[in-house]
Amino acid sequence: LSRVTTTADATAPGTLTVVGLGPGGPDLRVPAATRCLGAATDIVGYAFYVEQAGPFRDDQTVHRSDNRHEAERAQFALDLAAQGAHVAVVSSGDPGVFAMATAVLEELHRALDRWAHVDVRIIPGVTAATAAAALVGAPLGHDFCVISLSDVLKPWATVVNRLDAASGADFVLALYNPISSHRPWQLGEALATIGRHRRPDTPVALVRDAGRPDEVARITTLGAIDVSIVDMRTVILVGSSTTAAFTMATGRTWLYTPRHYP
Ligand code: SAH
Protein backbone atom coordinates (compact mmCIF):
# COMPACT_ATOMS: atom_id res chain seq x y z
CA LEU A 1 0.00 0.00 0.00
CA SER A 2 2.57 2.56 -1.00
CA ARG A 3 1.02 4.83 -3.60
CA VAL A 4 -2.52 5.99 -4.23
CA THR A 5 -2.98 5.14 -7.89
CA THR A 6 -6.17 4.07 -9.57
CA THR A 7 -7.54 3.36 -13.03
CA ALA A 8 -10.73 5.24 -12.09
CA ASP A 9 -12.12 8.50 -13.46
CA ALA A 10 -11.09 11.13 -10.89
CA THR A 11 -13.86 13.54 -11.88
CA ALA A 12 -16.74 11.23 -10.87
CA PRO A 13 -17.65 10.73 -7.20
CA GLY A 14 -16.00 7.67 -5.76
CA THR A 15 -17.40 4.87 -3.65
CA LEU A 16 -15.95 2.71 -0.94
CA THR A 17 -17.71 -0.56 -0.23
CA VAL A 18 -16.59 -2.79 2.60
CA VAL A 19 -17.34 -6.26 1.31
CA GLY A 20 -17.84 -9.35 3.46
CA LEU A 21 -16.45 -12.33 1.58
CA GLY A 22 -18.09 -14.92 3.81
CA PRO A 23 -15.97 -17.66 5.34
CA GLY A 24 -14.37 -19.01 2.19
CA GLY A 25 -15.49 -19.79 -1.31
CA PRO A 26 -18.02 -17.91 -3.45
CA ASP A 27 -20.86 -20.32 -2.57
CA LEU A 28 -21.27 -18.72 0.85
CA ARG A 29 -20.86 -15.16 -0.43
CA VAL A 30 -23.93 -12.96 -0.84
CA PRO A 31 -24.70 -11.93 -4.47
CA ALA A 32 -24.36 -8.21 -3.64
CA ALA A 33 -20.75 -8.85 -2.57
CA THR A 34 -19.94 -10.71 -5.78
CA ARG A 35 -21.55 -7.91 -7.81
CA CYS A 36 -19.56 -5.24 -5.97
CA LEU A 37 -16.27 -7.09 -6.56
CA GLY A 38 -17.08 -7.21 -10.28
CA ALA A 39 -17.88 -3.48 -10.44
CA ALA A 40 -14.88 -2.26 -8.41
CA THR A 41 -12.00 -0.39 -10.06
CA ASP A 42 -9.77 -1.06 -7.05
CA ILE A 43 -9.64 -3.91 -4.56
CA VAL A 44 -7.94 -3.32 -1.21
CA GLY A 45 -7.29 -5.98 1.40
CA TYR A 46 -5.11 -8.36 3.30
CA ALA A 47 -3.37 -10.54 0.68
CA PHE A 48 -4.93 -13.82 1.91
CA TYR A 49 -8.47 -12.43 1.54
CA VAL A 50 -7.74 -10.74 -1.78
CA GLU A 51 -6.79 -14.19 -3.16
CA GLN A 52 -10.14 -15.51 -1.89
CA ALA A 53 -12.00 -12.65 -3.57
CA GLY A 54 -10.35 -13.03 -7.01
CA PRO A 55 -9.67 -13.62 -9.81
CA PHE A 56 -9.74 -10.02 -10.98
CA ARG A 57 -9.64 -8.49 -14.46
CA ASP A 58 -6.73 -6.56 -15.97
CA ASP A 59 -8.71 -3.32 -15.72
CA GLN A 60 -8.98 -3.72 -11.94
CA THR A 61 -6.15 -2.65 -9.64
CA VAL A 62 -5.45 -4.92 -6.69
CA HIS A 63 -3.75 -3.45 -3.61
CA ARG A 64 -2.57 -6.21 -1.26
CA SER A 65 -1.46 -5.51 2.30
CA ASP A 66 -0.35 -7.48 5.31
CA ASN A 67 -2.76 -8.32 8.10
CA ARG A 68 -1.80 -5.43 10.37
CA HIS A 69 -2.21 -1.67 9.94
CA GLU A 70 -5.97 -1.74 9.40
CA ALA A 71 -6.11 2.04 9.94
CA GLU A 72 -3.58 2.69 7.18
CA ARG A 73 -5.44 0.36 4.84
CA ALA A 74 -8.69 2.19 5.58
CA GLN A 75 -7.13 5.62 4.95
CA PHE A 76 -5.57 4.39 1.74
CA ALA A 77 -8.93 3.07 0.52
CA LEU A 78 -10.75 6.30 1.49
CA ASP A 79 -8.13 8.36 -0.37
CA LEU A 80 -8.57 6.21 -3.48
CA ALA A 81 -12.34 6.64 -3.33
CA ALA A 82 -11.96 10.40 -2.80
CA GLN A 83 -10.11 10.46 -6.14
CA GLY A 84 -13.08 8.85 -7.90
CA ALA A 85 -12.25 5.16 -7.60
CA HIS A 86 -14.84 2.49 -6.88
CA VAL A 87 -13.05 0.71 -4.09
CA ALA A 88 -13.93 -2.66 -2.61
CA VAL A 89 -12.28 -3.24 0.76
CA VAL A 90 -12.44 -6.97 1.33
CA SER A 91 -12.85 -8.63 4.70
CA SER A 92 -13.40 -12.25 5.64
CA GLY A 93 -16.75 -13.36 6.98
CA ASP A 94 -18.85 -10.35 7.94
CA PRO A 95 -16.92 -7.07 7.60
CA GLY A 96 -18.54 -5.69 10.74
CA VAL A 97 -17.39 -8.56 13.00
CA PHE A 98 -13.79 -7.95 14.19
CA ALA A 99 -12.99 -6.61 10.73
CA MET A 100 -12.56 -3.74 8.28
CA ALA A 101 -15.94 -1.95 8.44
CA THR A 102 -15.06 -0.56 11.86
CA ALA A 103 -11.60 0.54 10.73
CA VAL A 104 -13.11 2.45 7.79
CA LEU A 105 -15.73 4.18 9.97
CA GLU A 106 -13.16 5.05 12.63
CA GLU A 107 -10.98 6.79 10.05
CA LEU A 108 -13.99 8.51 8.51
CA HIS A 109 -15.07 9.74 11.94
CA ARG A 110 -11.56 11.03 12.68
CA ALA A 111 -11.36 13.14 9.50
CA LEU A 112 -14.89 13.82 8.29
CA ASP A 113 -13.86 16.77 6.08
CA ARG A 114 -11.13 14.88 4.29
CA TRP A 115 -13.50 12.24 2.90
CA ALA A 116 -16.78 14.17 3.01
CA HIS A 117 -17.87 13.11 -0.49
CA VAL A 118 -16.99 9.45 -0.37
CA ASP A 119 -20.05 7.24 -0.62
CA VAL A 120 -19.44 4.46 1.92
CA ARG A 121 -21.39 1.20 1.90
CA ILE A 122 -21.10 -2.06 3.82
CA ILE A 123 -22.14 -5.45 2.46
CA PRO A 124 -22.64 -8.10 5.15
CA GLY A 125 -21.34 -11.63 4.99
CA VAL A 126 -21.69 -15.02 6.61
CA THR A 127 -19.60 -14.81 9.76
CA ALA A 128 -17.38 -17.65 11.02
CA ALA A 129 -19.71 -18.45 13.95
CA THR A 130 -22.75 -19.17 11.77
CA ALA A 131 -20.72 -20.92 9.06
CA ALA A 132 -19.19 -23.18 11.74
CA ALA A 133 -22.50 -23.72 13.53
CA ALA A 134 -24.15 -24.96 10.35
CA LEU A 135 -21.46 -27.63 9.95
CA VAL A 136 -22.15 -29.16 13.37
CA GLY A 137 -25.90 -28.52 13.71
CA ALA A 138 -27.62 -25.62 15.44
CA PRO A 139 -25.56 -24.79 18.54
CA LEU A 140 -26.45 -21.08 18.27
CA GLY A 141 -30.19 -21.81 18.47
CA HIS A 142 -30.53 -19.92 21.73
CA ASP A 143 -28.81 -16.78 23.13
CA PHE A 144 -25.13 -16.65 22.32
CA CYS A 145 -22.14 -14.38 22.72
CA VAL A 146 -19.28 -13.71 20.29
CA ILE A 147 -15.92 -12.96 21.94
CA SER A 148 -12.49 -12.43 20.42
CA LEU A 149 -9.70 -13.89 22.55
CA SER A 150 -7.17 -11.53 21.03
CA ASP A 151 -5.57 -9.18 23.54
CA VAL A 152 -3.80 -7.19 20.83
CA LEU A 153 -6.49 -4.48 20.87
CA LYS A 154 -7.97 -4.96 24.37
CA PRO A 155 -6.48 -5.93 27.74
CA TRP A 156 -6.44 -9.64 28.60
CA ALA A 157 -8.21 -8.86 31.89
CA THR A 158 -11.17 -7.59 29.83
CA VAL A 159 -11.26 -10.81 27.83
CA VAL A 160 -11.28 -12.88 31.03
CA ASN A 161 -13.99 -10.69 32.64
CA ARG A 162 -16.23 -11.05 29.61
CA LEU A 163 -15.68 -14.81 29.39
CA ASP A 164 -16.49 -15.09 33.08
CA ALA A 165 -19.67 -13.01 32.76
CA ALA A 166 -20.88 -14.67 29.56
CA SER A 167 -20.19 -18.17 30.89
CA GLY A 168 -21.89 -17.28 34.17
CA ALA A 169 -24.93 -16.02 32.24
CA ASP A 170 -25.07 -19.36 30.39
CA PHE A 171 -24.62 -17.98 26.88
CA VAL A 172 -23.37 -20.30 24.16
CA LEU A 173 -19.93 -18.88 23.28
CA ALA A 174 -18.34 -18.35 19.88
CA LEU A 175 -14.63 -17.70 20.40
CA TYR A 176 -12.80 -15.91 17.57
CA ASN A 177 -9.01 -15.39 17.29
CA PRO A 178 -8.48 -18.27 19.73
CA ILE A 179 -4.68 -18.54 19.61
CA SER A 180 -1.61 -17.28 17.77
CA SER A 181 2.16 -17.59 18.05
CA HIS A 182 2.21 -14.30 20.01
CA ARG A 183 -0.56 -15.50 22.34
CA PRO A 184 0.24 -19.13 23.20
CA TRP A 185 -1.18 -19.44 26.75
CA GLN A 186 -4.35 -17.34 26.62
CA LEU A 187 -6.59 -20.10 25.25
CA GLY A 188 -5.82 -22.36 28.23
CA GLU A 189 -6.75 -19.61 30.67
CA ALA A 190 -9.89 -18.82 28.66
CA LEU A 191 -11.05 -22.45 28.79
CA ALA A 192 -10.28 -22.65 32.52
CA THR A 193 -12.41 -19.53 33.08
CA ILE A 194 -15.31 -21.04 31.15
CA GLY A 195 -14.80 -24.32 33.03
CA ARG A 196 -15.61 -22.60 36.31
CA HIS A 197 -19.22 -22.26 35.07
CA ARG A 198 -19.69 -25.23 32.69
CA ARG A 199 -19.57 -28.97 33.18
CA PRO A 200 -16.69 -30.94 31.57
CA ASP A 201 -19.21 -32.77 29.33
CA THR A 202 -20.40 -29.48 27.76
CA PRO A 203 -20.36 -29.95 23.96
CA VAL A 204 -17.69 -28.00 22.08
CA ALA A 205 -17.12 -27.66 18.33
CA LEU A 206 -13.73 -26.79 16.85
CA VAL A 207 -14.15 -25.65 13.27
CA ARG A 208 -11.17 -24.79 11.12
CA ASP A 209 -11.37 -23.24 7.63
CA ALA A 210 -15.17 -23.38 7.47
CA GLY A 211 -16.30 -23.04 3.85
CA ARG A 212 -12.75 -23.55 2.50
CA PRO A 213 -11.28 -26.65 0.85
CA ASP A 214 -9.45 -27.75 4.02
CA GLU A 215 -12.54 -27.44 6.23
CA VAL A 216 -12.42 -29.49 9.46
CA ALA A 217 -15.20 -29.68 12.06
CA ARG A 218 -14.57 -31.62 15.28
CA ILE A 219 -17.05 -32.17 18.05
CA THR A 220 -15.66 -32.70 21.53
CA THR A 221 -16.35 -31.62 25.10
CA LEU A 222 -14.99 -28.90 27.31
CA GLY A 223 -13.20 -31.49 29.46
CA ALA A 224 -11.59 -33.30 26.52
CA ILE A 225 -10.71 -30.42 24.21
CA ASP A 226 -7.37 -30.82 22.40
CA VAL A 227 -6.02 -27.29 22.00
CA SER A 228 -3.13 -28.46 19.82
CA ILE A 229 -5.43 -28.57 16.78
CA VAL A 230 -6.66 -25.00 17.35
CA ASP A 231 -5.11 -22.17 15.35
CA MET A 232 -5.97 -18.70 14.05
CA ARG A 233 -8.18 -20.18 11.34
CA THR A 234 -10.32 -21.96 13.91
CA VAL A 235 -13.49 -20.79 15.62
CA ILE A 236 -14.54 -22.49 18.87
CA LEU A 237 -18.19 -22.92 19.82
CA VAL A 238 -18.80 -23.79 23.47
CA GLY A 239 -22.28 -25.02 24.38
CA SER A 240 -24.44 -23.69 27.20
CA SER A 241 -25.95 -25.85 29.97
CA THR A 242 -28.74 -26.88 27.56
CA THR A 243 -26.72 -27.62 24.40
CA ALA A 244 -27.31 -31.25 23.44
CA ALA A 245 -25.40 -33.73 21.28
CA PHE A 246 -26.64 -36.92 19.63
CA THR A 247 -25.17 -39.40 17.16
CA MET A 248 -27.14 -40.95 14.31
CA ALA A 249 -26.77 -44.56 13.13
CA THR A 250 -24.58 -43.23 10.30
CA GLY A 251 -22.10 -42.01 12.93
CA ARG A 252 -22.93 -38.37 12.28
CA THR A 253 -23.02 -36.28 15.47
CA TRP A 254 -25.22 -33.18 15.70
CA LEU A 255 -25.21 -30.39 18.27
CA TYR A 256 -28.16 -28.16 19.01
CA THR A 257 -29.26 -25.69 21.64
CA PRO A 258 -33.02 -25.86 22.24
CA ARG A 259 -35.12 -22.73 21.65
CA HIS A 260 -36.83 -23.15 25.04
CA TYR A 261 -35.04 -22.62 28.32
CA PRO A 262 -35.84 -24.40 31.57
N1 SAH B 1 -14.84 -10.93 10.06
C1 SAH B 1 -14.58 -12.32 10.33
C2 SAH B 1 -13.82 -12.53 11.64
C3 SAH B 1 -12.43 -11.93 11.65
S1 SAH B 1 -11.55 -12.33 13.13
C4 SAH B 1 -15.91 -13.08 10.35
O1 SAH B 1 -16.97 -12.45 10.38
O2 SAH B 1 -15.88 -14.31 10.30
C5 SAH B 1 -10.64 -13.75 12.57
C6 SAH B 1 -11.11 -15.00 13.29
O3 SAH B 1 -12.35 -15.43 12.73
C7 SAH B 1 -10.19 -16.20 13.14
O4 SAH B 1 -9.16 -16.17 14.10
C8 SAH B 1 -11.14 -17.36 13.37
O5 SAH B 1 -11.40 -17.52 14.76
C9 SAH B 1 -12.44 -16.83 12.74
N2 SAH B 1 -12.61 -17.29 11.34
C10 SAH B 1 -12.67 -16.50 10.24
N3 SAH B 1 -12.91 -17.24 9.14
C11 SAH B 1 -13.01 -18.53 9.55
C12 SAH B 1 -13.27 -19.78 8.88
N4 SAH B 1 -13.47 -19.84 7.55
N5 SAH B 1 -13.30 -20.91 9.62
C13 SAH B 1 -13.12 -20.86 10.96
N6 SAH B 1 -12.87 -19.72 11.64
C14 SAH B 1 -12.81 -18.57 10.95
What does this structure look like?
By secondary structure, the chain is α/β, with parallel strands linked by helices. 27% of the residues lie in helices and 24% in strands. It is built from seven helices and 13 strands. It has helices at residues 31-39, 47-53, 70-82, 100-110, 128-136, 156-168, 186-195, and strands at residues 15-20, 42-46, 61-65, 86-91, 119-123, 137-138, 144-148, 172-176, 203-208, 216-221, 234-238, 244-247, 253-256. A five-stranded parallel beta sheet has the order 3-2-4-1-5, sandwiched between helices. Strands 7-8-11-9-10 form a five-stranded mixed beta sheet, with helices on both faces. Strands 6-13-12 form a three-stranded mixed beta sheet. Strand 9 (203-208) and strand 10 form a beta hairpin. Helix 6 packs parallel to helix 7 (186-195). It starts with 14 loop residues before the first strand and ends in a 6-residue tail after the last strand. The mean pLDDT is 93.
